Amino acid sequence: MPFVCEFYAPAKLVYTIGYGTITFLELCQHFEELSQDSRYDRPMNKIVRYAHNQVVQLSLEESRSLPAVKKRYHRYFVGERSAMIAPTDLEFGLARMHMSYTDEAGVETRPVRTLTEALAWLELDPSADSALAAWLEDVETRVVKPIMAATVRNNSTDRAG
């Protein structure tokens, strides 16, 4: 599964990192698994970050069916706020398109450029919460940076070969 979810219960926060090639089926499986995860204390705030240059393989029809998929899980995700970190113009545009589909399902989604913007929109302040700051640093060091580095390495190898 090309998703890693890290949970921070005190702030009701889940940090989801997507990597590799993500298909519609895998996205649906992610929703199912998250809805059944005992750590998911709904409603939660969510930070979503995709590894650089990863691919989401969704047809236009699949993209349009996302609201229906999300509606199936409405009772699990109602009240959720999801900040999608999208640093490049292409990622930001795709995140805005995703936002238009998920808003139909009653999930508030916002594309942002940085983790700092994501935290601000979710009304989380690591400077005022040292435990949150330590957790974020741990997730960035232990999970995000290695995935990003591996993605960059794999993309460089793909282009060279």
Automatic annotation (TrEMBL):
The entry's protein name is WYL domain-containing protein
**Species name for this entry?**
Actomonas aquatica
